[in-house]
């Protein structure tokens, strides 16, 4: 299988611009160059967007220079989308669908399939087995007696067109301020780029917005307060709320990657509530979540 191309956006480098390779491209443009910055993306569109947002105002090239032949970049899929419906959908049609919370009608996830009914059963079945991503969100809704809504949005003749349509839809929802559970590399990069407020490189960054997995927070302080309130509210013992467990698992993985944690519990001590992490090596350790939040990259 051919290696996927990464696109490197370089600002304040020597030279600036967009590269499609690290060795012989972005590396010599940034290494040893004072104040240079770069970011790599799965698509050229995302790399160009990052460049335009982060290029210094006094830069000689406000629009990026492409240091490769853009004719080598495959053309974007041109298949037209048609509105999809479950009734009478042609066999073999590639469907782009959303999973929504029926109480808010806001999408939680954008998917692509050739068999929507099978995808519905697969997602609902996975909710009882998996503890992260869309499975955890579905499980949390089901625990409240709420069945998520699966909506067919568009259909395409080819998988390539459907995947491109899926990414466009992810971008549209993210630009509306919605945090999705999509976890492919491209979709994580779309959320990172378009959901976060634009912050220039010469701006001092304090305790501002950030992501924990697919969850967006206005600040680290807000996450600390919310987690502290939750831990003080639930009775001591194993934590069973799947979304809380997912967030703690993400927090643990982001700051303590050596040994994986698969469960969390609390005990009451003289100093207050103590959070414990149960590790895959069968040890139980105290989890200082406040310090962990401060260490989130």
TrEMBL record:
InterPro entries: Ribosomal_bL9/RNase_H1_N, RNase_H1_N, RNase_H1_N_sf. Gene3D superfamilies: Ribonuclease H1, N-terminal domain. It comes from the Bacteria. Residues 6-50 form the Ribonuclease H1 N-terminal domain. This is Caulimovirus viroplasmin.
């Amino acid at each position: 299988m051919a290696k996927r191309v990464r696109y490197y956006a370089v600002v304040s480098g020597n030279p600036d611009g967009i590269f499609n390779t690290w060795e012989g491209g972005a590396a010599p443009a940034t290494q040893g160059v004072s104040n240079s910055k770069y970011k790599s993306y799965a698509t050229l569109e995302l790399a160009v967007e990052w460049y335009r947002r982060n290029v210094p105002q006094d830069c000689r090239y406000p629009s990026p220079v492409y240091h490769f032949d853009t004719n080598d970049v495959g053309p974007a899929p041109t298949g037209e989308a048609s509105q999809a419906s479950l009734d009478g959908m042609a066999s073999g049609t590639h469907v782009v669908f959303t999973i929504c919370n029926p109480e808010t009608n806001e999408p939680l996830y954008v998917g692509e399939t050739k068999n929507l009914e099978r995808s519905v059963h697969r997602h609902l079945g996975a909710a009882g087995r998996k503890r992260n991503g869309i499975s955890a969100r579905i499980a949390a809704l089901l625990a409240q007696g709420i069945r998520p809504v699966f909506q067919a949005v568009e259909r395409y003749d080819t998988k390539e067109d459907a995947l491109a349509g899926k990414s466009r839809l992810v971008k549209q929802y993210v630009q509306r301020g919605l945090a999705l559970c999509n976890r492919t590399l491209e979709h994580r990069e779309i959320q990172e780029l378009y959901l976060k407020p634009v912050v220039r490189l010469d701006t001092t960054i304090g305790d501002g917005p950030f992501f924990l997995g697919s969850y967006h927070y206005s600040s680290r302080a807000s996450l600390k307060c919310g987690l502290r309130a939750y831990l003080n509210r639930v009775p001591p013992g194993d934590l069973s709320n799947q979304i809380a467990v997912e967030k703690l698992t993400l927090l643990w993985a982001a700051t303590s990657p050596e040994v994986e944690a698969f469960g969390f519990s609390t005990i009451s001590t003289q100093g207050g509530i103590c959070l414990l992490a149960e590790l895959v090596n069968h040890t139980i350790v105290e989890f200082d979540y406040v310090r962990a939040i401060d260490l989130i990259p």
